[in-house]
Amino acid sequence: MSDFEISHEESKKKGPEGWWEEKSLAAKILWGIGLGILGLAFIALCGWVVMLLWNWLMPDIFGLKQVNYWQAWGLFILSSLLFKGMGNGGHSPSSEKKRKQKLKNYMHQEQLHKSESAD
Question: CA Rg, the chain, in Å?
Fold first, then answer.
């Protein structure tokens, strides 16, 4: 067996996390820095994409002015606040399900009430 096959067999025994455990501290730090740089690049890309989309669509459709990179970031943040809200507003996914279920029940009861009163 080659060294690669032996190390591959050993990492299989350790499970999916085994490759990370084998890394030295320096390698883990480099991974962290690399992921941090990728994350920052992705964030910067978001602002750039908003700017390009705005400048491509909005001036032609609505006659609005073009925006620069930082104005695009402002629009991105503003739209996030307006359409997503700040956090989840204290609603957990389960409470959201309960709210929707109550609304469905209420609408169903209203339909029944209307059909009974029409008879």
Answer: 27
Question: What amino acid is encoded at 114 in this protein?
Answer: K
CA distance 75 to 73: 5
**Residue 102 to residue 110: CA distance in whole angstroms:** 12
Measured between alpha carbons, how far is residue 82 from residues 48, 54, 76, 87, 113 in Å? 20, 17, 10, 11, 36
Phi and psi angles of residue 17, each rounded to the nearest 5 degrees, phi first: -85, -10
Residue pair 76/46 in contact by the 8 Å Cβ criterion = yes
In whole angstroms, give the CA distance from residue 12 to residue 22.
12
Residue % of the chain over a pLDDT of 90:
45
**How far is the C-alpha of 81 from the C-alpha of 73, rounded, in Å?**
12
What's the predicted TM-score (pTM) here?
Answer: 0.53
Q: How far apart are CA 31 and CA 35, in angstroms?
A: 6
Length of the chain: 119
Going by C-alpha positions, the residue among 38, 39, 49 that lies closest to residue 76 is 49
